[in-house]
């Protein structure tokens, strides 16, 4: 789960495994695999950094090939 903030300032947690896309229009909009959309105060880069940290925390990025390290 990653912590995010809705435009009204309310904090909420989102399961990063369901994120399909993150875009800025200029507001950051997160689209889930279910089609549901969330508009958040965080920038696209902030959301992507939190998603990456989440993946590392649950070791989804523990495989060297997923990290782009072909020689491992």
Summed up:
With 72 residues, the chain is of the alpha+beta class. The protein is built from one helix and five strands; from the N terminus they run βββββα. β3 and β4 form a beta hairpin.
Descriptive key words:
72 residues; alpha+beta; three-stranded antiparallel beta sheet; two-stranded antiparallel sheet
Descriptive overview:
By secondary structure, the protein is an alpha+beta fold. The chain has one domain. Helix content is about 20%, strand content about 30%. The chain is built from one helix and five strands. The protein has one helix at about 45-55; strands spanning about 1-5, 10-15, 20-25, 30, 35-40. The strands form two sheets. The protein has a three-stranded antiparallel β-sheet, with helices on one face. It has a two-stranded antiparallel sheet with strand order 1-2. Strand 4 (about 30) and strand 5 (about 35-40) form a beta hairpin. The protein is elongated, with a radius of gyration of 14 Å.
